[in-house]
From TrEMBL:
Pfam families: ABC_tran. Residues 6-192 form the ABC transporter domain. Transmembrane segments: none annotated. The keyword Transport applies. Gene3D superfamilies: P-loop containing nucleotide triphosphate hydrolases. PROSITE patterns: ABC_TRANSPORTER_2 (PS50893). InterPro entries: AAA+_ATPase (IPR003593), ABC_transporter-like_ATP-bd (IPR003439), ABC_transptr_haem_export_CcmA (IPR005895), P-loop_NTPase (IPR027417). Keywords: ATP-binding, Cytochrome c-type biogenesis, Membrane, Nucleotide-binding, Translocase, Transport. This is Heme ABC exporter ATP-binding protein CcmA. The lineage of its organism: Bacteria, Pseudomonadati, Pseudomonadota, Alphaproteobacteria, Sphingomonadales. GO terms for molecular function: ATP binding. The gene is ccmA.
Amino acid sequence: MQGVRIAATDLACRRGDRVLFRGLALELAGGEALQVAGANGIGKSSLIRILAGLMRPFAGSVERAGTIGLIDERPALDPHMPLGRALRFWQRLDGAVDNQLARLGLAGLSDVPVRYLSTGQRKRAALARLIGQQAAVWLLDEPLNGLDAHAVALVEALVAEHCRAGGIAVVASHQPFALAAMRRLDLAEFAA
Ligand SMILES: Nc1ncnc2c1ncn2[C@@H]1O[C@H](COP(=O)(O)OP(=O)(O)OP(=O)(O)O)[C@@H](O)[C@H]1O
């Protein structure tokens, strides 16, 4: 994961007729992690979408070096397919990487249609898909939502491993995220 980087300069975000934040800058290199914190509606998801390149900023720019892996509230898995087949669909595109299904507590759920998975199981399935993707830059929007304490610790461990391997993680969450040396960006400081 050499040369991995994500940087934003003088970023502003507008939704509807409201500017949510402005003057926001950030820069992360390989191995670094950042928590984006702030109250409901302040613009955390919007920032993640801008960083992912899914939404145009109102002002400013984003530079990315490295593939992007995104987790948000929608798992990128066909809801009608059994979980195993839905993940294999992506494996054919991403390469046959170990999705760590057993570690994620999904080993027994291969035959269950994605739409029947519980909230936490769906989040775990999205993590399996993310691991398979082998992206350098993880953009995680509320990755802890709906997870039990064991799964929260697992996500924290996965992010730590990803950063140790030279990846970048940006985690938007209003919940505490336990990761040594994680930087914190409070969106309220950039409120327009
Ligand atoms: N398409 C849209 N048009 C207009 N306003 C929008 C649109 N999408 C989101 N918003 C508004 O933008 C604001 C920021 O939303 P965003 O989802 O980025 O916040 P958030 O910090 O992630 O919130 P939460 O913690 O509740 O997930 C909210 O007030 C929301 O109502």
